[in-house]
Design a protein that fits this description.
The chain has two domains: 9-256, 3-Layer(aba) Sandwich (Aspartate Aminotransferase, domain 2); 259-391, Alpha-Beta Complex (Aspartate Aminotransferase, domain 1). It has helices spanning 9-15, 41-49, 63-76, 87-98, 113-122, 138-144, 167-176, 189-192, 227-240, 246-256, 259-279, 297-303, 318-328, 358-363, 380-391; strands at residues 80-84, 104-108, 129-133, 149-155, 180-184, 202-206, 220-224, 283-287, 310-315, 333-334, 344-346, 370-374. Helix 8 (189-192) links the parallel strand 5 (180-184) and strand 6 (202-206). The strands form two sheets. A seven-stranded mixed β-sheet has the order 1-7-6-5-4-2-3, sandwiched between helices. A five-stranded mixed β-sheet has the order 8-9-12-11-10. It is globular and about 75 Å long. The chain contains 15 helices and twelve strands. The chain has 396 residues and is an alpha/beta fold. The structure holds pyridoxal-5'-phosphate. Residues 86-88, 112, 155, 159, 184, 186-187, 206, 208, 218, 220 line the site of pyridoxal-5'-phosphate.
């Protein structure tokens, strides 16, 4: 792919990150090797000194992994990517690279449970403090900032409540306070939302989700804006060691070729299902950024090019009602994770967010009866039929 032309995301999804290779293979080869030969001692020394481009050892870089890193960086409009062994490895690496004793983080209260726990239970032991606030309210973000705030960390749409944070507004608060603005873009994917355009400094992804899209790999990605950030994170990742291996990098890169196409279908299906759920007598409340009833619908229209494949909703009958639904779906899989071609349904309070203290979970509107649906690319009418028959089994 020529780098002189600005291609669309549909084209970039298919071609971005292709690396030059000896046999002109159309698909990036899998360099399944832990280490690379040096032509001679001087070559080895030049690589280690950074005076020559090349590969040394797979924890420090690998051509197959680099192809994937370039692909995601290109889709995000960033400088470079760093592939990690999981989304949590990516988040941990960013925290480890930038936070020191005495520093403070302002973090969305609606985040993936373990992100909250990583800050409040692990980084707290190293003297890092964190405030969890409703980042959809910029005043709350501003009020939480302290002189020692080093990072504002936002997940939007947020997991699992689908609340939407104003990226440009949060970026301005970070800039005004010389804090790093980090965005978890997992729920939207780079196809539907480009945080760098709104002032993000660093983007993280769980590639386990939409980027890979086939529920068969665990992986993460950090995307940076400049070489200084890259060097700092590359060094931290090399020391922490949570890198992605070549085989999984190959699989995720393969998944990305259909990313743009998949996101279109996820959005279409989710919109249709959210509208169906909103009218269903057994459903109390639906959160989907594409519904006019969503509190940040207008904002989502401004900063996203589509509303994504994630829906959360509250069924009548609270936790019991949710259990009936989950135990009676036949086509939707009862499983955690999200972003794959197959529809998944789960219960955050007892599953993905069970790790969070109850009062923090409730404050973040993750109620006991909330159900999270990751809408796949199946036939939407068949998914609706499945949800309808299961919802109708709820007796209230
Ligand atoms: N960020 C978000 C928004 C997630 O939903 C998840 C996982 O569900 C993660 C990060 C963590 O990613 P991983 O499970 O790949 O470590």
């Amino acid at each position: 792919m020529s780098h002189h032309k600005k291609y669309s995301d549909a084209t970039k999804s298919v071609h971005a990150g292709m690396i030059e290779n000896e046999h002109l293979a159309v698909v990036t080869p899998i360099y399944q090797t832990s280490t690379f030969k040096f032509r001679n001692a001087d070559h080895g020394a030049a690589l280690f000194a950074g005076n020559e481009e090349g590969f040394i050892y797979t924890r420090m870089g690998n051509p197959t992994v680099k192809g994937l890193e370039n692909a995601v960086a290109e889709l995000e409009g960033g400088h470079k990517g760093l592939a990690c062994a999981s989304g949590m490895a990516a988040i941990h690496t960013v925290f480890g690279a930038y936070l020191s004793q005495g520093d403070h983080v302002v973090c969305s209260e609606a985040v993936y449970g373990p992100t909250n726990t990583l800050l409040s239970e692990v980084f707290s032991r190293f003297g890092v403090k964190a405030s969890f606030v409703d980042t959809t309210d910029l005043k709350a973000v501003e009020n939480a900032v302290r002189p020692e705030t080093k990072m504002i960390y936002v997940e939007t749409p947020g997991n699992p409540t689908l609340c939407v944070t104003d990226l440009a507004g949060a970026a301005k608060i970070a800039r005004d306070n010389r804090a790093l603005f980090v965005v978890d873009n997992t729920f939207a994917s780079p196809i539907l939302q480009k945080p760098f355009l709104f002032g993000a400094d660093i983007i993280v992804h769980s590639m386990t989700k939409f980027l890979n899209g086939h529920a068969d790999v665990v992986g993460g990605m950090i995307v940076v804006k400049n070489e200084e950030q890259f060097k700092r994170l590359r060094r931290t990742l090399n020391l922490f060691g949570g890198v992605l291996d070549p085989m999984n990098a190959f699989l995720v890169h393969r998944g990305i070729k259909s990313l743009s196409m998949r996101m279109e279908k996820h959005c279409q299906n989710a919109q249709k299902i959210a509208e169906f759920l909103e009218k269903h007598p057994k459903v109390e409340h639906v959160a989907y950024p594409g519904l006019p009833s969503h509190p940040q619908h207008e904002l989502a229209k401004k900063q996203m090019s589509g509303f994504g494949g994630m829906i959360s909703f509250e069924v009548k009958g609270g936790l019991e009602g949710g259990k009936v639904l989950m135990d009676n779906v036949q086509l939707c899989n009862l499983a955690v994770s999200l972003g794959g071609v197959e529809t998944l349904i789960q219960h955050p309070a007892s599953m993905t967010h069970a790790i969070m203290p109850k009062e923090i979970r409730l404050k973040a509107h993750i109620t006991d009866g909330l159900v999270r649906l990751s809408v796949g690319v199946e036939n939407a009418d068949e998914l609706i039929e499945d949800l309808d028959q299961a919802l109708n089994k709820i007796s209230v």
